[in-house]
Amino acid sequence: MALNYNLSKVYALSNDEEEYVIKIITSFYFEVPEEWKLVKKGVQELDYQMTNNYLQKIKPSIDLLGLDIAFEEMKQLEEWAKRNGKRKEVKELIKSIDTQIEKALKEIYKDFRL
């Protein structure tokens, strides 16, 4: 039972087609962690363009899987990148998003045996 993610948007988009749902979940499971690492690398290196580029890639997946808080926090991270903020300003945001993604991935792994 999904506690850390929500598939209602995925099911609505897929017209309840199970094969499509699995494809979306699998894509999320294997792609988002790698892209999130690149967002964090961008933050670490104060590479605002890199940070923003990878945020743009993963935000739709985060939204689609119902990680609403992480999605809102990613918007804050985008704003940080736009104004060329300091690393310490987003330290807690990064931790929070990390935790949410990790919990969702563990639950998806368990629920779908990925």
Shape: elongated
Strand content bin = under 5%
What CATH architecture label applies? Up-down Bundle
Stated plainly, the CATH topology is called Four Helix Bundle (Hemerythrin (Met), subunit A)
The mean pLDDT is: 95
Major beta-sheet overview = none
Enumerate how many helices there are, as a single number: 5
By helix and strand content, what is the structural category?
Answer: mainly alpha
Radius of gyration: 14 Å
| N-to-C order of helices and strands | HHHHH
| Domain count | 1
**CATH top level assignment:** Mainly Alpha
Q: Provide the low-confidence segments as ranges.
A: none
Q: Into which percent range does the helicity of residues fall?
A: over 70%
Number of strands: 0
Explain what the structure shows:
The mean pLDDT is 95. The two termini are 15 Å apart. 77% of the residues lie in helices and 0% in strands. The chain is built from five helices and no strands. With 114 residues, the chain is mostly helical. Helix 3 packs antiparallel against helix 4. It has one domain: Four Helix Bundle (Hemerythrin (Met), subunit A) (Up-down Bundle), CATH 1.20.120.
Summarize the entry for a quick read.
The protein has 114 residues and is mainly α.
List the helices and strands and how they pair.
Blueprint: H1 8-14, H2 18-44, H3 48-64, H4 68-82, H5 91-112
Salient structural properties:
Four Helix Bundle (Hemerythrin (Met), subunit A), about 110 residues, elongated, mainly alpha, 5 helices
